[in-house]
Design goal:
alpha/beta, 3-stranded parallel sheet
Length: 70
């Protein structure tokens, strides 16, 4: 009540291992997210398996052009 939150404008940000945590939170259904910024990591396999069951959310992938994992 002190700090009203516009629930349709919640964005998550994850860096490296935090990307997996952010994706898992978005996929949990505990809150609806407007989008996710994934910096220096990819989609974790356990979330990838559930994609067809999830409400879609936009994801901005940020990585180096010579990133060997992405």
């Amino acid at each position: 009540r002190t700090y009203p939150i516009e629930r349709d404008r919640i964005f998550l940000f994850g860096f490296s291992q935090g990307v997996s945590m952010a994706h898992r939170l978005a996929a949990s259904g505990r809150l609806r997210v407007a989008g996710l910024i994934a910096w220096a990591a990819d989609l974790p396999p356990d979330v990838a398996e559930k994609l067809s069951d999830l409400d879609p959310y936009p994801v901005l992938l940020v990585h180096a052009s010579d990133d060997g994992i992405i």
